[in-house]
Each structure stands twice: as C-alpha cells, then as structure tokens.
Model the fold of this input.
Amino acid sequence: MSVRKVVKLGGSVWDTLHPDYFVEWKEWVEAGNELILLHGGGPRLSAYCEAQQIKPAFQNGRRVTTADVLIGATRVLAGEMQTEIVMALGQSDVNAVGLSGVDGQMLIGREMTELGAVGEVETVDVSLIELLVKNRYVPVVTSILSGINGALNCNGDDCAVAVACALQADHFEMITDVPGIRIEGTFRETLTVDAMRRAIESGEIYGGMIPKTEALRSALDGGVALAIIRDGNDPAATGTQIKEGHYERTTSHIWTASH
Done:
C-alpha cells in the first residue's frame, strides 16, 4: 500500500541540504510511495530585498509584505528557488513539477490586510496534486496563495500543514537546520504534545522553534499520522517525532514517562 508523505523543506537549509536526501526521496518514490514537497525561502527573499534596497516594514512585530516584497516573493520563491529544487530532483531521477498555490487555484487565501499582501490558507483544492502523484510526479509547491485581489504571501510552515492535512498525508516532515527538539540539554527522538507545551511554557523551546513545533502539532490535530522534524544536514539522524501519547524518549532510547 502506498504511503503519502508531505515534506516541508526549510529555506534556511536548502543551500546546505545533504545530497543523501535526494537518494532517500528517489527510493521512496520508486517503492511506489507518494511525495509532496513544500518549500520556504525566507533567507533568499531577505537577500533579494536587501539587494533591491527594499526596506523591511513591520506591524506589531510581524513583517509586512509590500507590493515590492510580493514581487520578490514570486521571483525568488516561485521562480529561482523552485527551479533549483525541481532541477536537483530531476538530476536525481525524480520527476518533479513546480507549483504555487495560484496554479489551478490550488490554495485560496484570506487576506490579512494589516500585513499587506499576506494571507492565511482558507481552502485547499488537492485535485492537481492528486493528479500529479497518481502519475508518479513529485509536486514541489511554494507558499504563494491566490487571493481576491491578487497573489498573497503565506507563512511556509502554515501552508505546508494546510496541504498535509487536506491530503490526509500519512507522514509530515519538517526539514530544518537543527537536529531536532532539545529538552534539558538532550535531543529527543520522541516528544509528547503535552511535554512540548510544557517546554514552550518553561522557555526550553523558544524563538523560531516554537512555530515549527506548533506546526507539527497542528498536523497531528489535522489527521496526519506521523509528524517529525529532521536535520537537513544529516539524513541519517533520527530527528524528533511529536506524539499524542504519554511517553517520550531521548536519543539514548531510554523511555521515560511524561508527567
């Protein structure tokens, strides 16, 4: 039976992604499984804006997507970066197709006007993705949404979760630039949702890791069976799997009850 996996490839890790991931993905597809990739590109977009002397604007601490930034997002995310990913997959004998949420009206967004051309995913039409995976293609999707007044920029993690849940994926993976989630100085192989919540409250999980762990939890809430964060520089590493259950374990494989 085919297994459906959605992978969110972080923009911060793409330039240093270990080549063994392409081997893994090729073997996954050749085994008859389905693979859907979604990618970010924040660092590339920031570099573009700096080169174009586009000054960042913020509203209540959140970045505003101006018209100039949106042009950059479409050029960098749906253009330059997506082409690189699709080409790299092709060079590894993985047939891939680049898409954005605008293609086939796949991702419809609700505009968050206070942040400019930014949107939240409102509806997902999976028919185009289903057509591609049925014919053994790997869709490579970037987080540009279709909005009432035009294209919208969207948080890459949120977009990936929405697609994974709409597809009822078996696996949801986030590939980042860290080995996993660290609690009390130790990277965990598994972590319960409750333990994750406590670690956020205590400050052990902080900064950019908070939205990533919450994205994993949201995927589980949306019906995805397995949610895991992995190290883009080490595909052999276990990473951290978020679980709904009552037990967790560290990289030493010692099981401990969570309280």
